[in-house]
Design brief:
Helix content: 40-55%
Strand order of the largest sheet: 2-1-3-4
Number of strands: 12
Radius of gyration: 20 Å
CATH topology of the largest domain: Rossmann fold
Number of helices: 15
Shape: globular
CATH class of the largest domain: Alpha Beta
Structural class: alpha/beta
CATH architecture of the largest domain: 3-Layer(aba) Sandwich
Length: 359
């Protein structure tokens, strides 16, 4: 059974102006040296998301950190012996790291780095909807606040969402999904599950346009189209590969195509180029009918992260407002950890063959 968008569409969150850090080589080297010294003094490790700047991604790898998706960032931090985790990304990623690593100090370059999906799903509204539908199991995307995760039954990432929903559907569960309507619609179509969909969207992926993608694909007929499932249905329909950030990077490495049209945040190109040198990467168009910009393929909240801000945070007194430490009430953290752990346990069981999803 399919429930077709019965809820009102949430207004697209107005993002802040795009302000990307610009550094010359001399300042970049000076900042990196300062940061490395401060990290060593504070027993810190840097985990950076694929959508952050090349400078932060490079620094994370140069210092033994991690560049990955939000869940792997948190898992890496949990396994690492460092007492301080620096999370370069958006706020829910810092919260996820703190949820899974309560004993560690978790800091971020900019505490104002939000996420349109997180902002579009306030916990009071989400909790009220859950209360209105007590017969439904709530499943939320990782791009949500700690408070929403604490209210949910399950947390999922884009890479495992369809598998978990298929599993729950097989158990006869009816679901309440939040917050991304495009990812929810995609999961609903591939699983056939009965899903009531929250109507939020990502400001980056919402901007991709199918008419412009059609024109670009005609100009590059041998290019493979790689699409993140947060994109609109018409864009997903044109994809050769639909997947999470990690899955899209793997596709560039694995597929024989020389050219790729990529419908996700262009911050991912840095890792894609490293994974597959010599291959040509093209931004999926955000221009076309109904477009409000020529190129919106980068998250302005992700762009708030930078080397200057990271250095300032590490230089601020520990525990001061300028220290940008993620703090979560223990009751909320503990309940959010339960919904995340369900996903982790599912992933481990499925990998071990203890869960069979069938066709």
């Amino acid at each position: 059974m399919r429930v077709d968008f019965p809820l009102p569409v949430k207004p697209v969150i107005q993002p802040p102006p795009m302000v990307e850090e610009v550094l010359d080589d001399r300042e970049r080297l000076s900042l990196k040296n300062r940061i490395k010294k401060l990290m060593a003094e504070q027993d810190a490790v840097l985990v950076a998301h694929y959508y952050t700047s090349a400078d932060l991604q490079d620094l994370a790898e140069e210092t033994g950190g991690c560049v990955s998706d939000s869940l792997e960032m948190a898992r890496f931090g949990h396994a690492h012996k460092a007492k301080t985790l620096i999370v370069a990304g958006v706020k829910f990623m810092g919260e996820t790291s703190k949820i899974l690593n309560p004993e560690k100090r978790v800091i971020m370059p900019d505490m104002g780095a939000d996420c349109s999906l997180d902002l579009a799903c306030p916990v009071d509204e989400f909790a009220a909807l859950c209360d209105e539908h007590p017969d439904r199991t709530s499943v939320v995307y990782a791009n949500t606040s700690a408070a929403v995760k604490a209210r949910a039954d399950w947390v999922v990432t884009s890479g495992i969402a369809a598998k978990i929903v298929k599993y729950l559907h097989g158990q006869g569960k009816k679901l309440l999904w939040a917050p991304d309507r495009h990812l929810g619609d995609y999961v609903q179509r591939v699983t056939g599950a009965d899903m009531l969909l929250w109507q939020g969207s990502c400001v980056v992926h919402e901007a991709f346009k199918a008419d412009g993608l059609k024109v670009l694909r005609e100009a590059h007929p041998d290019a493979a189209v790689l699409v993140h499932p947060e994109s609109p249905e018409a864009v997903i329909a044109m994809a050769d590969v639909v997947g999470s950030t990690t899955q899209l990077i793997d596709a560039v490495r694995r597929l024989p195509n020389h050219e790729f049209i990529v419908a996700t945040d262009n911050g991912i190109f840095h890792k894609m180029r490293a994974a597959a040198p010599g291959k040509i990467l093209l931004e999926a168009p955000t221009a076309g009918e109904g477009a409000t910009c020529v190129s919106c393929a980068h998250c302005p909240w992700m762009a708030m992260n930078g080397l200057r801000k990271l250095a300032a945070v590490l230089e601020a007194p520990i525990g001061s407002p300028g220290g940008n430490e993620i703090l979560i009430e223990e009751d909320i953290r503990a309940r959010a950890a339960v919904s995340i752990q369900r996903m982790l346990d599912f992933a481990a069981a499925e990998k071990a063959g203890r869960i069979q999803l069938g066709d």
